[in-house]
Amino acid sequence: MTDPKGTAVALCGFVLALAPGGCEPPVQPGQAPAAIVHDSAGFEIVESLSPAWDAGSSWTVAGTPEIVLGGFDDMMDADSAHLVWNIGDVVALSDGRIAFLSRGEKNILVFEASGTFSRSIGRVGQGPGEFRNPDHLQVLPGDTLVVWDFMFGPVAYFNPSGELLRDWRIDVGALFGATGKPNQMSTERVHLPLADGSFIVQAHLIPGDFIPPFGEPYRALVEFLRVDAEYMVHSLGRWEEREFIYLQPSGPPSVPFPFGVQLAAGGTPLSVYITNSDRYEVHQCSDTGVLRRILRRSVDPIPVTADEIQQWKNAYARFPDWSSWDRAMAEFLPRVRPPIAGLLVDSEGCLWVLDRYGADLSESEWSVFDPRGHWLGTLELPLVRVEWVGEDLILGVRQDPDTGVQVVEGYRLDRRAGRGSL
Predict the structure, then answer these.
(1) Is residue 8 very low, low, confident or very high in pLDDT (cuts 50, 70, 90)?
(2) Pairing relation of β-strands 123-124 and 117-121?
(3) How does DSSP classify residue 336?
(4) Dihedral pair phi/psi, residue 163, rounded to 5°
(5) pLDDT surpassing 50 at residue 412
């Protein structure tokens, strides 16, 4: 399949071969450089060689949660009022309160910093301030909470007290007119809303009657598009979506530790970060799709073990027969994990890259890059699904593998030791 970054990669190769003098000023004798920066035609290539943090300057994360929202402590005394299903986005307000989207209950739940329940905002319906299938939750300056409904439904703005401030609807005709292409599948939802009211959609670059290859992993070509208030479209490039395998009806349409495009946005000015996950490389673009920087690290491939594959299979209890899946996968090289499994931009504009996670989803490892693209270091977190990283708090979601009950957990983050490296 065509490399979605072909132009940029070819240009980078040219720069590295012919312009080695474009690096940062040399370091002191005996001191190894932490990163090499190559200036190219309008963008930088930042190759991180070692972390900026040392043993005394690394950020630290508490090993136990300071905040736990939802769930229950005692199965014998379970109160269903505390149970939350299908948790979506989780955000922190400026006064320490925490809000998260319950896609199952179709509302926003707000908790005090102490963990005490404060209020519920919104409900099921099609009127003002009501949701059909809430998909995204944002927090804007002033603690305005914004909910984006699925399938280009209404966008509702609330103050922290739950009062509806305003709502608006995406002009679906204008959107499809701006993003649609002949004989291709239409985009179905807002992939990522942005703080200025614009949003990113994922357009499938395959025919509507596309039939995937049978019995081999494949990744469909997609294009990310930012749509502004005037329905002007800014391309963020072509990429390859999550890896699947087509074996229906005799097997699951997935593979363990799949490769797939990852996208995140944040910082001031706004940056959009995208990776194809097939190498440790992240593209940092402006909101109009202009490439600003390419971040790179060299990492060794991590094989997927037989135990991890079996643990992954165990989660698919509805597929009792794995013979066709095993035969198909035996035709390919042993699987390795994608070098990048996720992206997140924190409240301070730093990029967090999910390097790896446990098969049991109990812990993960993240590399942190400053806004200039320099690798600060790596942190181990006691959860995988991280939803929000603030100045001193990490919020994520944990799900009990047996009961399916979800809780929001908050862990203290101490950045003080690493301030000098930013």
Answers:
(1) very low
(2) unpaired
(3) B
(4) -75, 130
(5) yes
Q: Are 235 and 222 in contact (CB under 8 A)?
A: no
- Based on C-alpha coordinates, what's the Rg of the chain? 22
Which tokens belong to 75?
Answer: 């199965």
- Candidates 346, 340, 348; CA nearest to 388 is 346
Contact indicator for 220, 240 with CB cutoff of 8 Å: yes
- List pLDDT tens digits, range 390-410: 999 999 999 887 788 899 999
C-alpha angle 273-131-403 in degrees, rounded to nearest 5: 75
Phi, psi of 217 (to 5 degrees): -60, 140
The pTM (predicted TM-score) of the whole model is 0.88
Alpha-carbon gap, residue 299 to 48, rounded angstroms: 11
DSSP 135-165: EEEEEETTTEEEEEETTT-EEEEE-TTS-EE
Rounded to whole angstroms, the Cα distance separating 150 from 65 reads: 31
pLDDT category, 333, cuts 50, 70, 90? confident
DSSP summary character for residue 125: S
Give the end-to-end CA distance of the chain in Å, rounded to a whole number.
39
Query: Nearest CA to 393 among 30, 93, 53?
Result: 93
**Angle CA 105–110–113, to nearest 5:** 145
Question: Torsion angle of alpha carbons 22, 23, 26, 31, nearest 10°?
Answer: -160
